[in-house]
Amino acid sequence: MIEPSGRRERKKAATRQKIADTALRLFLERGYDAVGIRDVAAEADVAVTTVFAHFVSKEALVFERDQDFEQRLTRAVTDRAPHEPLIPALHREVQALVRHCTAEGTAPVRRMIEGSPSLREYEESMCLRHAQALAEAMAADPRLSRSATACRATARFAIDAYALACWADDPGATVDEVFRMIEAAWEATAP
After folding, report:
1. Are 121 and 57 spatial neighbours (Cβ–Cβ below 8 Å)?
2. Rounded Cα gap, residues 130 and 152, in angstroms
3. How far is CA 81 from CA 77, 91, 152, 172, in A?
4. pLDDT in tens, 19-72
5. Which of 123, 145, 170, 186 has a CA-to-CA distance to 134 between 20 and 30 Å?
6. Which residue, 29, 17, 138, is CA-closest to 87?
7. 116/37 Cα distance (integer angstroms)
């Protein structure tokens, strides 16, 4: 996560994190459906409007690192070394994101998401948005010289590798297996 530089930005980031941490604690203690935004605001000692200033919905509270993840994925494309191939850079970033989401203590959160239709739907739409942003970053990179279709398909497969790995018995091996397929498909689309 990028650290905010100014005092005001640091305060906003701290408030946002406090709200997210409070919400997650309440969701895990009481159940996602049993906790409302007002409960989160009261427990975090902020106004309801403050919660909505930082999060667009109740579901967004669970996926508070959403924007950071999307930025990390697109930076794997845009910030890689000039001669570094795309797929290894993307593979490394997806592995890092999977390690974060499968770290010790994350199983209760994954179970909560799986048990909630609204959270599963939000996660699916979030993944589609990440794939779109990733595809756009790839298509804009003149070093890649691939069609928009190849970029969109590769981005979707990379996001799917992440999603599959989060539920796999061996997350790292799952990412590696999917990225072997992605690498082969990417090479097949070379001009």
Report:
1. no
2. 11
3. 9, 15, 22, 24
4. 999 999 999 999 999 999 999 999 999 999 999 999 999 999 999 888 899 999
5. 170
6. 138
7. 16
